[in-house]
Amino acid sequence: MNSGDRLPPLEIPVTRTLIVAGAIASRDYQDVHHDPDLARQKGSPDIFMNILTTNGLVGRYITDHFGPRAVLRRVAIRLGAPNHPGDTMVLAGTVEETDGETVTVRVIGTNAIGRHVTGTVTVTLPSEPVPTTAPDGPPPPPS
Question: What is the pLDDT of residue 58?
Fold first, then answer.
């Protein structure tokens, strides 16, 4: 992994269910995340994704790429254009820096309106290989 390396893009369909489920899961009960009529009354064309859902999707993007043993150390994002139902968010990343087991990736997520999210994620990658087989059994009892 080198500075400048690009991660493959990830397309995420933005569904009404994803928006509402993400808001509920993060205990964000703001009406703009689940009630289209109230969202429109507040000036939005429809409900829109909350920042915690976006944060989780950015984290998923990184761990999907680097694997389940990768540890997210820092996620710093800023929202821009809202994600509305029916859109597709495309996440893309570029390695900014590597330092031993630590990698910093610049992430950009776009939709039909523009940039939904920009930011950086710092992740630590384990140096030891991931086991490919299960252990032979439980450890022996203490003596």
Answer: 98
Domains of the chain plus CATH, in order, are 6-124 (3.10.129.10)
Mean pLDDT of 125-141: 64
CA geometry: angle at 36 spanning 30 and 41, to 5°? 80
Q: Please enumerate in sequence order all residues whose Cβ is within 8 A of that of 97, keeping only pairs 6 or more positions apart, or say none.
A: 3, 103, 104
Pairing of strands 6-14, 87-99: antiparallel
Report the distance separating Cα 7 and Cα 27, nearest Å: 31
Q: Would you state the structure tokens that stand for residue 60, as one six-digit string? A: 């998923």
Could you read off the pLDDT of 15-66 as tens digits, one per residue? Answer: 999 999 999 999 988 888 998 999 999 999 999 999 999 999 999 999 999 9
Helices 51-66/16-25 angle, 10° precision: 100
